[in-house]
Amino acid sequence: MLDIHIYALILLIIRLASMAFMLFVLHRQVSLFKFPVGRNIAKLRRVLFMLALAIFLGNFIPASIDIMTLMGDATTRPQFVGLTSVVYSFSNGLTALLSAFLIWKLYQIAAYD
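Request: output the structure for the sequence above.
Response:
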């Protein structure tokens, strides 16, 4: 079993990394919307923007829960997390991180090609 604070810290780091990728994409996409591009690239950039926004916003609640877990008093709840919960949470966090990374890579292709 994994201590709840270590578990929450690792998940928070994963979620913040995912959000950082998406914040970078969102920031750059907003600045690129003012430049004229072909219709297909414009559509691709809009879709990338929407995907980045969805992943960024989708990490707010899980990151908030992680922060509350880290800052909260662990004496009022279980000190350890079961294996099923750990696997499920890490799967979700790593999926968000991988998705964020891949969208960031797609953004690099759309921004510079």
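Helices lie at 4-32, 39-58, 60-71, 83-112.
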